[in-house]
Amino acid sequence: MDVPSPGSSFTDLLDSLGAKPVLNIPPGEKPPSAPEGTTVLALRYSGGVVMAGDRRATEGHLVAHRRIRKVFPADRYSAVAIAGTAGLAIEMVRLFQVELEHYEKIEGVRLSLEGQASYLARLVRGQLPMAFQGLVVVPLFAGYDEREARGRLYSYDAVGGRYEEIDFGSTGSGSRLAKAYLRTVYREEMTDDEAFDAAVKALVAASQEDTATGGPDLRRGIYPTVLRISAAGVEELPDAVVAPLAEEAVDQIR
Does a structural domain hold residue 10? Predict the structure, then answer.
């Protein structure tokens, strides 16, 4: 039996071995109810990109989880945020992380940021049959492009369309509200502190009108996840930094 040589694509290798996971819903059956991740956003600033997400997952009209994580490092210089069917989205992120690590081990270099964005579009497109069943996953992707010495940001649609954003992007149930807020305050020459503040306030603004978006829960100590992606790599802000931003946002945006 011929064993396929490990190519630079981990999912292609799984497919050649017949080990690629397949998700199918029988014809005529309704998809199961599953938690949905809501609002995530990202914005470019002078030193890179800031990416943030709320912590709520909903199931119908109920709160399924209050502390879900929707923003993840993809590799040392990139990150991905997810909205949509939470379980499928988190599995997509894990596969994406493994894919980037596999490529680097096989090729000896990191996949370019453009290549990473294209590969994530391929993963989203691979979920199209599930999207037609109502189980949709829509990510955001951002990273620091070492070749161009700047942050870059990509949004996607449910069929795998990829779009590079020049300023900011958001996806999820509260995305329109978050983008409406960012449109009023965004400046490309923002400092990182200004970008952190804008990101948290945009999430709070979305939570005021979108019940699926969870605002900061100051009593329970639940704050948005905020990542900075710069020439130094991906860094998650600790709660000690996010908490005062969240308190100010809740106080100012009512």
Answer: no
> CATH number of the domain that 203 lies in?
3.60.20.10
Point out the catalytic residue in the list 38, 39, 213, 225: 38
pTM: 0.86
From the centroid of its chain, how far is CA 67?
15
State how many domains the chain has.
1
The pLDDT tens digits for 124-149 are: 988 877 766 767 889 999 999 999 99
Q: How many Cα neighbours within 13 Å face the side chain of 63? A: 12
Please indicate, yes or no, if residue 18 is contained in any of the structural domains: no
Cα–Cα dist 224/40, whole Å: 10
Query: Could you tell me which of 92, 88, 36, 39 has the C-alpha nearest to residue 65?
Result: 36
217 membership: H or E segment, kind and range: none
What tokens were used for 75?
């590799």
Distance of alpha carbon 52 from alpha carbon 225, whole angstroms: 5
Angle between helical axes of 239-252 and 192-209 (0-180°, round to 10): 50
Q: Is 38 a catalytic residue?
A: yes
Instruction: State whether residue 198 is helix, strand or coil.
Output: helix
Identity of the residue numbered 195 = A
How do residues 62-92 score in pLDDT, each as one tens digit? 888 899 999 999 999 999 999 988 888 899 9
Identify whether 23 is part of a domain.
no
CB atoms within 10 A of CB 110: 17
The DSSP call for residue 69 is -
Looking at the DSSP bridge assignments, the partners of residue 153 are 142, 165
Give the whole-angstrom CA distance, residue 244 versus residue 103.
40
